[in-house]
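Re: weekly structure request thread

Next one in the queue (299 aa):
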Amino acid sequence: MIGLNRHILLFRHSRLRQFVLLAVLAVMTVGLVSKTDARPLTVRVDRWLEVRNVSGTVDIWQNNQWRQAQSGQRLSSVGHGMRTGAGSLARLAVDTQVGFIGLSENTAIAITRMETTASGGKITNLEISRGQARVFVRPFTNPESQLEIRTPAGVNGVRGTEFGVAIQPSGRSSLVVEEGRVDSSAQGQSVPVNEGFQNFTVPGEPPSEPMPITEEPNLNIQRLERQRRAGEVTVLLEGSTFVVNALVIEGTTQEIIVDEDNTQIGRFAVELPLPADRRIEVTVTTPLGKTQIYDVVVP
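Done, posted below.
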């Protein structure tokens, strides 16, 4: 009788261990399904950005070093990047001809994610840390395909569109959508920016509400005068342009401050040495790449 009770007890323990093992396997299976739903499974397929055109000083970052960029080179790994110098331009093609990215002067871009899902979806995540870029992406046919452009202020997600981004030295980013729609996201909030609209995002803040495109490289000068400091003659230049534009004065990108009374207007002020020829070159570029160069003559 004692032996029989012991046998029954062992049988119950065996059934209990089986139950616990099945429960653990079930939890692990649910966890795997949850992770798969959150991030599609990827397969090893060669992906790249190809250098198509360069003008001026353009470098690529590969193998932990910068080197001069040449047409035909490819950026294919996370961390690979490109930068343009003053007065320089570059154009990148996304593999499989899904789109193109045009870089203006003083711009830096890097790959943060480039994968292919098991169903053939193309996932391309890029970071533009400074400067201005215009992006053209054809509509995706695979629902798992995505293109995201991250800036210091937020993320712009697209599935097929034509848009431009411009980044101020402070990290504030501007977005202009010419075709399609872009979701502008930051601080846990997402704002859809439709065709014909623009917005901007300040680091640490949610995206601004969309407003109609201005798309004009305008320059309004409010103050231009000489000053003498410690025996050196300098020039004080103050003015305004549309807040989404990029402003370069004598080769250096300048910060544009949002006007509190009119969020479409950005103001700037800069003091620089008086040039020998009394001429100051000011370049204004819209997020879609429209550029105007101004020759400002100091009286």
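DSSP finds one helix and 26 strands in the chain. Helices lie at 2-38.
Next request, please.
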